[in-house]
């Protein structure tokens, strides 16, 4: 009985240590900053952020975050979507140009 309890405890500890919450993850603020930096890089830093970035999704089990950055270059407004990995490296997904922006 004592062996079974010890084995159960060992299995429980192993499961907890390998759970998704124990894996490294880029913080939301860092993911947003990485996405904004990547987005501004497409416009040779001539653009500006006109709305704070948003974390749209957390992809499991890779712990990759999908982040939207909002950039204005002159009168044009763009939404830039990136995937940010647990090491806070942003990878481009797509760009959309927003229509007539009222602001």
Structure description:
It is a single chain. This protein has one domain (24-97): Roll (Nuclear Transport Factor 2, Chain: A), CATH 3.10.450. The longest helix has 16 residues, at 2-17. The protein has helices at residues 2-17, 28-41, and strands at 48-59, 64-73, 76-84, 90-97. The chain is built from two helices and four strands, in the order ααββββ. It is rod-shaped, with a radius of gyration of 20 Å. By secondary structure, the chain is an alpha+beta fold.
**Cα distance spanning the termini:** 70 Å
- Number-wise, the strands total 4
> What is the domain tally?
1
Overall mean pLDDT: 85
| Helical run tally | 2
CATH class: Alpha Beta
Estimate the strand proportion.
35-45%
Strand order of the largest sheet: 1-2-3-4
Q: CATH architecture, please?
A: Roll
Kindly report the CATH topology: Nuclear Transport Factor 2, Chain: A
Q: What is the radius of gyration computed over CA atoms, rounded to a whole number of angstroms?
A: 20 Å
Pairing-aware structural class of the strands and helices? alpha+beta
Low-confidence stretches: none
What coarse outline follows from CA principal-axis ratios? rod-shaped
The biggest beta sheet reads: 4 strands, antiparallel
Helix-residue proportion? 25-40%
Order of helices and strands: HHEEEE
